[in-house]
Amino acid sequence: MKRVTGVGGIFFKAKDAPALRAWYKQHLSVDVQSWGGAAFDWTDDEGKPVAGTTAWCINSQESDHFAPSTSSFMVNYRVADLHGLVKALREEGCNVLDKIEESEYGKFAWVVDPEGNKVELWEPPAGQ
């Protein structure tokens, strides 16, 4: 079974999230949206869209989105078979969180790595 197929998103905390979002928007032209981040659509060598997006988001330092990790970042990895991977990780003794979410955005699960970093696993909806 193929496990990780790519990076789906990068999320990090900031002391002053609104100011840091504004800095990225002004100086690096990141199209920061009202939800605090941006979506980078994938393109081919000619700039034509292909299926896929990478999310990027700045969270406030008080955010509990990364809990139980105390890390200041979380990486979201794209996977092809979320339920199969979660099963395999549990069988391998990994610290997989109990909750699996399914929505119009796809399927999500979380595992905590040996250094305490929460890792998000994402199976995008079909065709994305």
UniProtKB/TrEMBL annotation:
InterPro entries: Anthracycline_SecMetBiosynth, Glyas_Bleomycin-R_OHBP_Dase, Glyoxalase_6, VOC_core
Domain VOC: 6-124
PROSITE patterns for this protein: VOC
Highest taxon of the lineage: Bacteria
Gene3D superfamilies named in the record: 2,3-Dihydroxybiphenyl 1,2-Dioxygenase, domain 1 (3.10.180.10)
Pfam families: Glyoxalase_6
PANTHER family: GLYOXALASE (PTHR33993:SF5), GLYOXALASE-RELATED (PTHR33993)
Protein name: VOC family protein
Organism per entry: Massilia eburnea
